[in-house]
Design brief:
about 230 residues, alpha+beta, four-stranded antiparallel beta sheet, 6 strands
Length: about 230
């Protein structure tokens, strides 16, 4: 059994200049102010669009992210319907195969230190699930049948594509203190990176969660989780 921390990877994000130019061209169509487009007009125009709440304009640009997390987190992500998803399938992935290391991979919970009793109970449950899963496969069960015993902590990969308006909505909800701690583990650093790469679209949200983003860099304890072992 392999235990890993969650993470994300940006798979597709056009250069900032292209995103700004596209959104400006779309937005100025509304006001018929294309004649005001210049080599440096886009950043300020887009900031005004975002500040004014005219967010339908920023739907013209999209972003694709791969999340590596537990299945509980993906259950929350897919509730955001204005997006496209492609997820690792436990129907077809046979974790007994060599390419998976003949083992399951699980996401380490941030809630408990490794030397705590809750963590030991969790680890034992994961090991028992792995043993049952591998035994079912060895006994002739298909992966789609053996997956019945796989845990919520099972590592999965999900690729999510959404327009920038939807990403603002998702990251605003999933970065708040009301969100599940494990989804905040990926949403806060993603928001921080997007604020650096596309500040006109995300800097205001990053400012809203600035302390949480900074705390995340200090480790799980700052987010209400366990210190790393």
């Amino acid at each position: 059994m392999k235990v890993i921390a969650p993470y994300y990877e940006i798979l597709f994000l056009p250069p900032r200049e292209q995103v700004l130019a596209l959104v400006e061209a779309a937005g100025r169509t509304c006001y018929k102010s294309e004649h005001l487009i210049s080599s440096d007009s886009a950043p300020e125009f887009v900031r005004r669009i975002v500040d004014s709440g005219h967010h339908s304009v920023i739907e013209h640009s999209s972003l694709t992210v791969r999340f590596v997390c537990d299945r509980g987190v993906t259950h929350e992500l897919v509730r955001h319907r204005l997006a496209a998803y492609s997820q690792e399938s436990t129907r077809y992935a046979n974790y007994a195969q060599d390419r998976f290391g003949s083992q399951i991979t699980v996401i380490k919970p941030m809630f408990w230190p490794e030397d705590s009793e809750p963590y030991r109970l969790w680890e034992a449950a994961m090991a028992a699930a792995e043993e049952a899963y591998l035994a079912l496969l060895a006994g002739g069960a298909k992966p789609q049948e053996a997956r019945a015993v796989l845990p919520n902590s099972l590592k999965t990969e999900i690729v999510m594509t959404a327009n920038l308006r939807e990403w603002r909505h998702v990251l605003n909800l999933r970065s708040s203190k009301a969100a599940h701690p494990q989804i905040r583990q990926v949403s806060l650093p993603l928001l921080g990176e997007l604020a650096e790469r596309l500040p006109e679209f995300f800097a205001d949200l990053a400012e809203k969660y600035a302390k949480d983003i900074a705390d995340f860099a200090q480790g799980p304890a700052a987010l209400g989780g366990a210190e790393p072992a």
